[in-house]
């Protein structure tokens, strides 16, 4: 009898102990959930603060572009693109604790920034019209248009002239390059490039030698071409290029809508690519007489080369490298260019 009572008592104590432990565990779990919720709220608040600060910084930079000289705009818009990409990556890394609706709102804010920057860049940074043979006549036509604006209507004043048109005149006067050539070896001398904007357009199966220090280099619609360029003082823009090899040095590179391109690169800040694939990168290895002087004149530091720092606008995952570009294998690299140019 006593054994039965003792057994019943032991079972009751065991049941009470078990119930007590379950309640304790439930309480601990509830406390942990509250802590996690508070932590998520803190992270969301922190993210919102940082995002808005960065967004405001970029908006201020976009507005600042109105006050810059035309020769500083290319680098300025490069920096804006870089800052937008950094903010995109910050958003992508924070998706783990953000709500779906919030992610869409922030993504739309980033898209608005991108559109504002691109629209303003198109407005303030005139794009070269191709066809260099008629460069002087085009410049004269634009100057005549300005004169008509000034003199054609008696009430027009100089400060009412379209400032973008004036900027185009200055741009034409400070650019040089080649357009619509096939199966040709092309070259510019150092004096022809000094402080100039160089434009290469609609070239097919050409080899271009640019040994000197251009201000900027623009390349558009190049097919099966080799381009060898000394240090560019600011930026290189390349778009719509295919099956090409570029041996280039610059402060910043922007590559758009291109594929099957090998780039031997020296870049002191970063390279940015968008809508590109099968891009292969190797370190810059061009050598020619007086190249050290050209590096000094360009302001580029030859000791600093961030050739693997590639930001891909189409790939925002921070934990994995973009599949749209890769390092060119050592066995596939060309180490001596003297027979190519």
Strand content: 15-25%
Poorly predicted tracts of residues? 35-40, 128-139, 148-173
User: What gap, in angstroms, lies between the N and C termini?
Assistant: 108 Å
* Largest sheet, spatial ordering of strands: 1-3-5-7-9-11-13
Biggest sheet record: 7 strands, parallel
The coarse silhouette is elongated
The CATH architecture of the largest domain comes to: 3 Solenoid
Helix content: 40-55%
Family: Belongs to the TBCC family.
Protein name: C-CAP/cofactor C-like domain-containing protein
GO cellular component, one term: cytoplasm
InterPro entries: C-CAP_CF_C-like, CAP/MinC_C, CARP_motif, TBCC, TBCC_N, TBCC_N_sf, Tubulin-bd_cofactor_C_dom
Structure in a nutshell:
Residues 166-315 form the C-CAP/cofactor C-like domain. With 341 residues, this protein is an alpha/beta fold.
Overall description:
The protein contains seven helices and 14 strands. With 341 residues, the protein is an alpha/beta fold. It folds into two domains: 8-124, Tubulin Binding Cofactor C, N-terminal domain (Methane Monooxygenase Hydroxylase, Chain G, domain 1), CATH 1.20.58.1250; 162-332, Pectate Lyase C-like (3 Solenoid). The strands form two sheets. The protein has a seven-stranded parallel sheet with strand order 1-3-5-7-9-11-13. It has a seven-stranded parallel sheet with strand order 2-4-6-8-10-12-14. The relative contact order is 0.08.
Tag the structure with descriptive keywords:
tubulin binding; seven-stranded parallel β-sheet; Tubulin-bd_cofactor_C_dom; single chain; CARP_motif; 2 domains; TBCC; Pectate Lyase C-like; 341 residues; 7 helices; alpha/beta; Methane Monooxygenase Hydroxylase, Chain G, domain 1; cytoplasm
């Amino acid at each position: 009898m006593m054994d039965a009572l003792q057994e019943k008592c032991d079972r009751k104590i065991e049941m009470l102990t078990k119930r007590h432990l379950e309640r304790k565990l439930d309480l601990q779990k509830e406390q942990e959930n509250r802590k996690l919720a508070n932590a998520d709220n803190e992270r969301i608040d922190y993210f919102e603060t940082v995002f808005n600060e960065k967004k405001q910084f970029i908006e201020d930079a976009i507005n600042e572009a109105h006050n810059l000289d035309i020769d500083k705009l290319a680098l300025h818009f490069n920096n804006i693109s870089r800052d937008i990409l950094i903010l995109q990556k910050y958003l992508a890394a924070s998706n783990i604790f953000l709500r779906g609706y919030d992610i869409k709102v922030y993504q739309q804010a980033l898209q608005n920034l991108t559109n504002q920057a691109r629209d303003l860049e198109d407005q303030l940074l005139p794009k070269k019209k191709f066809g260099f043979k008629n460069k002087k006549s085009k410049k004269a036509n634009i100057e005549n248009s300005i004169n008509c604006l000034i003199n054609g209507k008696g009430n027009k004043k100089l400060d009412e002239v379209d400032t973008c048109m004036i900027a185009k005149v200055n741009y034409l006067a400070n650019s040089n390059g080649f357009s619509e050539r096939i199966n040709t070896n092309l070259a510019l001398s150092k004096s022809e490039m000094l402080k100039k904007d160089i434009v290469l357009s609609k070239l097919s199966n050409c080899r271009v030698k640019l040994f000197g220090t251009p201000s900027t280099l623009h390349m558009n619609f190049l097919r099966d071409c080799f381009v060898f360029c000394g240090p560019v003082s600011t930026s290189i823009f390349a778009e719509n290029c295919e099956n090409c090899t570029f041996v280039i040095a610059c402060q910043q590179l922007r590559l758009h809508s291109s594929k099957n391109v090998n780039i031997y690169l020296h870049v002191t800040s970063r390279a940015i690519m968008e809508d590109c694939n099968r891009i292969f990168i190797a370190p810059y290895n061009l050598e020619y007489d007086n190249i050290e002087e050209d590096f000094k004149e360009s302001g580029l530091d030859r000791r600093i080369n961030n050739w693997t720092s590639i930001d891909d606008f189409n790939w925002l995952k921070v934990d994995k490298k973009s599949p749209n570009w890769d390092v060119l294998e050592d066995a596939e690299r060309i180490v001596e260019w003297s027979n190519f140019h």
